[in-house]
């Protein structure tokens, strides 16, 4: 019996080892396809509206300006990583800040997987390193998403209130994001919504039970100081990236004001997420170009501005994730076998 069990374990490990590289190459292929799709779309627009003007705008940017944009994006990732650490410790995990930052940043490698399911890799790393089951760490992902929604909704609402013009059409999205964040941070209400959903569709009983259990466990995050700290960290992070977009537009000679710039950036990010496309690819870029056009920004400026800000935010995050992912995977595997 022991020999048979050992053989089965070996076969399972061998199968997982075989699937690992295959899955990794599949994810890399998906990243490449999405990147090519976005670049092809933006290049097509640039060619149709005057490639020389677009090229001129891109060439105006200096290396130091690109570094500033990347640094502001890094501020976003680090502050949101600190929020992940706050939630992790509040949940009862004895993880360190460095450990949580490794998990959070490494998870960016899976940002463009369909439905962002790939980000659940963070919970797998936690299971290996702490022994906590996925069901127990699931609230971390729920709170992370809800906190982002709340912070971005407040930023969008504030940007709309302080600006004028076409961006006012984004108010319904801000209200929708706030409503989603409110539900996601109310354990009883979220559990009731899950129950209602199950009664409506009558499918996936085991999954629904797990989600309902995770929803009830959100109670631990409900204290005022924790929610305030989480919101502050999220606001600082997302405002940093919005400010980067504002600087970029100024450098390209299209200063529309900080409030309007951050509102357009935030709305485009949210709109891209609502499309369901991995990483909001395609939808976010289209929304950004369209809203800039409504503000009178010519396409020879809006197209390169959109391309640069997406490269220095979403794709920069993915690059960081790809760099951190192997280390996070290796450390978690060692912890699991220790």
UniProtKB/TrEMBL annotation:
It is a multi-pass membrane protein. Residues 1-19 have a biased composition (Polar residues). It comes from the Bacteria. This is Uncharacterized protein. NCBIfam families: flippase-like domain. It comes from Octadecabacter temperatus. Residues 1-20 are annotated as: Disordered. Pfam families: LPG_synthase_TM. The keyword rRNA-binding does not apply. InterPro entries: L-PG_synthase/AglD. Keywords: Cell membrane, Membrane, Transmembrane, Transmembrane helix.
């Amino acid at each position: 019996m022991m020999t048979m069990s050992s053989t089965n374990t070996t076969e399972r490990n061998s199968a997982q080892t075989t699937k690992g590289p295959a899955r990794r190459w599949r994810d890399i292929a998906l990243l490449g396809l999405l990147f090519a799709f976005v670049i092809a779309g933006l290049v097509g627009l640039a060619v149709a509206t005057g490639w020389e003007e677009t090229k001129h705008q891109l060439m105006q940017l200096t290396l130091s300006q690109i570094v500033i944009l990347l640094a502001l994006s890094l501020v976003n990732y680090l502050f949101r990583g600190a929020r992940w650490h706050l939630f992790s410790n509040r949940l009862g995990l004895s993880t360190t800040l460095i450990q949580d930052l490794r998990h959070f940043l490494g998870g960016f490698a899976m940002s463009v997987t369909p439905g962002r399911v790939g980000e659940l890799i963070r919970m797998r790393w936690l299971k290996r390193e702490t022994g906590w089951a996925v069901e127990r760490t699931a609230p971390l992902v729920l709170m992370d998403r809800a906190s982002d929604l709340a912070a971005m909704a407040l930023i969008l609402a504030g940007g709309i209130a302080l600006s004028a013009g076409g961006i006012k059409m984004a108010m319904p999205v801000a209200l929708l994001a706030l409503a989603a964040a409110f539900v996601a941070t109310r354990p009883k209400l979220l559990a009731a919504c899950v129950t209602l959903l199950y009664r409506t569709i009558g499918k996936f009983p085991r999954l629904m039970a797990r989600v309902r259990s995770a929803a009830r466990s959100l109670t631990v995050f409900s204290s005022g100081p924790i929610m305030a700290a989480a919101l502050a960290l999220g606001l600082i992070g997302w405002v940093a990236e919005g400010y980067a977009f504002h600087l970029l537009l100024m450098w390209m000679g299209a200063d529309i004001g900080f409030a309007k710039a951050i509102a357009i950036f935030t709305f485009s990010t949210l709109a891209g997420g609502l499309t369901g496309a991995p990483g909001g690819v395609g939808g976010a870029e289209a929304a950004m170009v369209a809203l800039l056009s409504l503000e009178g920004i010519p396409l020879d400026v809006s197209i390169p501005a959109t391309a640069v800000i997406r490269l220095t935010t979403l794709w920069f995050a993915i690059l960081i994730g790809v760099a951190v992912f192997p280390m996070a995977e290796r450390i978690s595997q060692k912890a699991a076998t220790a």
